Amino acid sequence: MTEHHLMEFAWGLANSKIPFLWIMRPDVVMGTESITLSQEFLDEVKDRGYITNWCFQDQVLAHPSVGVFLTHCGWNSTMEGIEVNHDVKREEITTLVKEMIKGEKGKEMRQKCLEWKKKGIKATDLGGSSYNNFHNFIKEALHHNAI
Q1: Which of 11, 16, 24, 128 could form an SS bridge with 97, CB 3.0 to 4.6 Å?
Q2: How far apart are CA 98 and CA 106, in angstroms?
Q3: What is the 8-class DSSP label of residue 33?
Q4: Residues 139 and 106 sit within 8 Å (Cβ to Cβ)
Q5: Model confidence pTM above 0.90
Q6: Euclidean distance between CA atoms 4 and 100, whole angstroms
Q7: What is the dihedral of CA 24, 10, 57, 81, to 10 degrees?
Q8: pLDDT, tens digit, for every residue of 93-147?
C-alpha cells in the first residue's frame, strides 16, 4: 500500500462516521517501517476509532460487534475479508463501510455468514462430513505407516 492509499483508506473510514477498530501494521506502507497518521485524522476519529498495530484476528472477527472487515489484501486477510480496490478512493471506502453496516447488502452478507458458520460447525462437529473425512484420512495414513 502506498502512503496515498493509506490516507485515502483512513479518510474513507473517518468520513463514514461509523465506529471502527483498525489494525495497522507499522510496515503497511511500502518502503517504510512505520507510519504516522495526521493529527487532523486522529482528532476526527478520537471518539469512535481505535487504532493499534496487532490483535488476535480470529478473536476480533468472532466478536459480535464486528459488522464489516476491510482488508489491504495481505495473505491472512485475503482468507477472511472483503477485498478493497488497490487504487482505493476515500469515497469508495466511505460508501462501502456505510453499505456494509447500514445497507441491505451488508445485512444479506451477514446473514449468509451466519448460514456458512452454522454449516461449518455442523461439518466439523462429531459425525460431520469434514470430521469424518479427516478421521478417515488419519486412519488411512496410520494404516499405511503400519504396513
Answers
A1: 16
A2: 9
A3: S
A4: no
A5: no
A6: 24
A7: -130
A8: 899 889 988 999 888 988 998 899 999 999 999 999 999 999 999 999 988 776 6
